[in-house]
Amino acid sequence: MMNKRDFIKTTAAASFLTFINPLEVLGATSSVNNKKALVLGGRGFIGPTIVNSLLKAGYAVTLLNRGKTNAHLFKELPVIICDRERENKEGLKSISEKYKSTYWDVVIDTWQKSPKAVADFLDEFKDHVGHFHYISTISVYDKWDKKFIVETEPLNPLPSFPKTIAEEHRYAIRKTFCEEAIRARMSNYTIHRSHGMKSYRVTRPEDPNAQPFWPIRFYRGGEILLPKVENHYMQVTDVVSLVNFILHCTATKTYGEFNVAYHPTLFKDYVSSLLHATRKESMSDYTTSIIRNKKMPIKLQWIDGEFLKKNGLEPYKIVPLWRERPVGAYSFNVQKAINAGLTNRAMVDMITDQIEGYKSRFPEQTFEFGEIYKGEKLKYYPIEKEKEVIKKWLTK
Ligand SMILES: NC(=O)c1ccc[n+]([C@@H]2O[C@H](COP(=O)([O-])OP(=O)(O)OC[C@H]3O[C@@H](n4cnc5c(N)ncnc54)[C@H](OP(=O)(O)O)[C@@H]3O)[C@@H](O)[C@H]2O)c1
């Protein structure tokens, strides 16, 4: 049974999609009726948004996974139980003839582990796939040594392709190998290179370290420390916009590689979106917040970046979405995807999703960044550190 929280999660994800479904805009919903979609995975972080979106667009959706992760989600859908990490394609071989002979109009692969598993799947199924989508990452680019990197820039140099599933490589190399495996086998693919995906869901729902720092900080309110830095840009990928782009590429038979993210965005504009999202929040949640004394009116304290560094608030690891090196970070060129039909929704909608997701996972707001939680020191910095640095700045 789907519990209340998961119901809200899945329906919330689906309801956000009602606003911007490119297939509806194109009048294409009816044309996908009876088309078959296979989602490899589908029950983790981005998978549920993909599945909901495909269902809403009218696809008959089948999942392929081991039935381990979030097995309570999409119980109504057929699931091909298959372990992609078994050597010699043993997992794929055990799939029933019915599914082996099915023609899948669209297949979406979210795989981030062994590249051999992607190659194995395609070797077995590529002749039965209309359009293959792969969720990749900007980590596939070799050098982040300049701004506005486009899709034709060199990728990570690779050793020879892994002969076994067990062969280990770091994340960026695995993803680059996966892309190479796809390119070597087909042309009817779209590769989506994302840059820091943000969503209602998070990769590790129970882990405070996986929760979104800035949306939560603004949601809690009070006096907020912000880095005052020249030319400070940030860049992220909104999962809902990415998934809509996947559907759009399918409907328009758009193939190739795409950087998929918002345009590089000035950090102060991101702050405007945070303010807008949390102002809506504070109106709907005003009484509760006063009672809990968790939220106060927001006051911004923009503090010189060098001063922050001197006081232990370093970019990126301590202060998220502030990154000075490498120079290409948060500055990837997404114009190719925009030209092909990527429509990034308003950033405030993404932030609102993130806050709703956080509230559903931590209704009692039981952790503080930078403090000890269940025996572990959390990422970023605690409220006391923020207060201390603000005071020091104002009295210097
Ligand atoms: N750029 C970013 O910021 C960012 C952030 C997070 C993720 N990502 C990328 O996003 C992608 C999406 O990951 P996701 O968690 O959202 O995917 P997902 O499809 O939502 O979840 C992963 C799925 O894979 C299945 N799976 C795991 N091991 C398997 C196996 N051995 N055989 C068959 N199925 C297996 C899991 O089910 P079972 O366990 O039941 O098998 C689960 O359904 C990843 O490629 C990752 O690189 C990017």
Describe the structure.
There is one protein chain. The chain is an alpha/beta fold and 396 residues long. The protein has 2 domains: 4-199 and 237-260, 3-Layer(aba) Sandwich (Rossmann fold), CATH 3.40.50.720; 208-234 and 265-327 and 345-394, no CATH class. It has 15 helices and 15 strands. The protein has helices spanning 4-17, 22-25, 47-57, 90-93, 97-100, 115-125, 171-183, 213-220, 239-252, 267-284, 286-292, 305-310, 335-340, 347-361, 383-394; strands at residues 36-40, 60-65, 79-81, 104-109, 129-137, 189-194, 197-198, 221-228, 233-234, 237-238, 256-260, 265-266, 296-304, 372-373, 376-377. The strands form 5 sheets. The protein has a 7-stranded parallel sheet, with helices on both faces. Strands 7-10 form a two-stranded parallel sheet. Strand 1 (36-40), helix 3 (47-57) and strand 2 (60-65) form a beta-alpha-beta unit. Helix 6 (115-125) runs parallel beside helix 7. Residues 1-29 and 286-293 have low confidence and may be disordered. Bound molecules: NADP nicotinamide-adenine-dinucleotide phosphate. NADP nicotinamide-adenine-dinucleotide phosphate binds at residues 41-47, 65-69, 82-85, 110-112, 135, 137, 194, 196-197, 203. NADP nicotinamide-adenine-dinucleotide phosphate binds next to strand 5.
